[in-house]
Amino acid sequence: MIAACYAAGAIVVLPLALILWHLIAKGLPALSLSFFLEMPKPVGEPGGGMANAIVGTLILVGLGALLAVPVGVGAGVYLAEFGRGRFASLVRYTADLLGGVPSIVVGVAAYGLVVIPMGGFSALAGGVALAILMLPTIIRSTEEVVRLVPQSYREAALALGAPRWKVTQQVVIPAARAGIVTASMLAVARAAGETAPLLFTALGNRFWSTALDKPIASLPVFVFDYARAPYDDWNRQAWTGALVLVMMVTGISALLRLTVRRVAQR
Amino acid sequence: MKSARITADGVYRATLGGAAALVFVVVALIVFETARGAGLSIKTFGLGFLTGTAWDPVSEKFGALPYVYGTIVSSALALLIAVPLGIGSAAYLAEIAPRRVGALVSFVIELLAAIPSIVYGIWGFFVLAPWLRGAVEPWLIAHLGFLPLFRGYPFGIGMLNAAIVLSIMIVPTIVSISREVLLATPGSLREAALALGATPAEAIGVALGAARPGILGAVILALGRALGETMAVTMLIGNTNRISASLLDPGATMASIIANEFTEATTPLYISSLIEIALVLFAITIVVNGAARALVYWATGGRRTAAALA
């Protein structure tokens, strides 16, 4: 039984290691400065980059964060500071359920909510879809970080005669600020890798576009299209795009997790 | 709260509470939009939508059964692979590994959970598929081809490939939650077992038994993830509208048909049918996740939250 546990651990780690190894081995050769700076070339012309997709992803993720972070942090602080009643439990449970909704379903909902009323695919629709995906994670991790603020801070501030809202706004939130920022960024970084909700909201775009009411390119959708294309050069670039995407997402996550730990230990 | 007087405290609390209440609005909007979009399809096909097998945009006949079948079979297969391995390695991490190793491995596993599914997709497509096509599937056909499960041609792309990659994707969920649940079981259980003369392996068995509800929750949560997984499956399952007993044959899932055809859907009924599939998928995952979260919450006394699970 003990040997079986060792074996299971090894078998679990093996494919994950293989994926990372292939990602680096196949993605690295085409990784160059021009990949970040150049536009995609037409079929048949080698080279080119995904500059528009990288910028597009940043815009989509920024838009999503702009919508989700204020709401998510507000809700998280509410749950941590005032969340004792039935309403708060219901919010928690609903946020958890929202976190389990498949991203493709969120995409379908954003299609109905934004694409149809606006009359076409747009960066804004993609941003709304990503915001919905970020929201539950931001709420629950903000709640967790705010709870870490020692109770004595609140008691000290209340003892000095501060009203409840000032205690939260001027003592608890500043004390938890680093944690709140990292927790939100983590959710935002993870949303950067989402493909499914963008397929029929932001759609994709082979050209340079930063307009919020037009279809916009994104890195994950580019990787998806390039991987399925029957051209070797595109397939190579798909690997590079995937590598860049993973570096963006896990790089930020790893960095933040380490800082969160440090903040939590302090 | 003695009177209805507006206080700064009340306003502050109401503002934050309003942000919290937006969660209900978002979920309600998702339900409302998918239900409204699916209306035409529901009216046209009724319950027959779930049992129909035709998917013909030209004559506008739509039935979701092959996709429901594909979703259930691919997820079940993925669980079949991932559950024993996941629980085994969680037991290793929680019970056997030195604390530092356990913490390091779970840190890495949580990072891996953040890898976008499209990356698993291109790995399955360019690395796993050629290997399955060249080595594994021909062997399966030659030696186990008498079973209907392994009949057909070695495509590389199909149910088997999708299930393997899905299992790789859901293993981190099972490992990290099961480990957490195991660590939450009281150490006195193991000590009591050992004191009664149990071997170390039997003591682990006792701990696993105590952690059963939480581990079950982890498995159901992983199932929820597998049911809704879109991009990797879309790239690997072959997207063919058929129900086949053979694992080597291509198929399609609810998520993959939506991802593949939504932008190509031209007629209102076609789009509505795809949205109804999304609605069904939504309903299934709500039920599955609701059950899983209740179990995990109960088993860990509420310590484990969705933020860490997502």
Describe this protein's structure:
The complex is a heterodimer of chains A (266) and B (310). Chain A has 266 residues and is mainly alpha-helical. Chain A is 75% helix and 0% strand. Chain A is built from 10 helices and no strands. The longest helix of chain A is centred in the C-terminal third of the chain and has 34 residues, at 232-265. The mean pLDDT of chain A is 89. The two termini of chain B are 38 Å apart. Chain B has a two-stranded antiparallel sheet with strand order 1-2. Chain B has helices at 8-45, 48-51, 65-96, 99-112, 117-144, 159-184, 187-195, 200-210, 212-228, 231-236, 254-261, 268-299, 306-309, and strands at residues 55-56, 61-62. Helices cover 74% and strands 1% of the residues of chain B. Chain B is built from 13 helices and 2 strands, in the order H-H-E-E-H-H-H-H-H-H-H-H-H-H-H. By secondary structure, chain B is mainly alpha-helical. Chains A and B meet through helix 1, helix 3, helix 4, helix 5 and helix 6 of A and helix 1, helix 3, helix 4, helix 5 and helix 6 of B.
Give the % helix of chain A: over 70%
For the residues shown, what is the average pLDDT of chain A? 89
Beta-strand segment tally of chain B:
2
- Whole-angstrom Rg of chain B: 23 Å
Could you give a quick summary of the protein structure above?
The complex is a heterodimer of chains A (266) and B (310). With 266 residues, chain A is an all-alpha fold. Chain A contains ten helices and no strands.
List keywords for this structure.
heterodimer, A: 10 helices, 75% helix, 0% strand, B: 310 residues, mainly alpha, 13 helices, 74% helix, flat, disordered C terminus
Which SSEs are present, and which pair or pack?
The complex is a heterodimer of chains A (266) and B (310).
Chain A (H helix, E strand, L loop, with lengths): L1 H26 L5 H5 L13 H32 L3 H15 L2 H16 L4 H25 L3 H9 L4 H28 L27 H10 L3 H34 L1
Chain B lengths: L7 H38 L2 H4 L3 E2 L4 E2 L2 H32 L2 H14 L4 H28 L14 H26 L2 H9 L4 H11 L1 H17 L2 H6 L17 H8 L6 H32 L6 H4 L1
Antiparallel strand pairs in B: 1-2
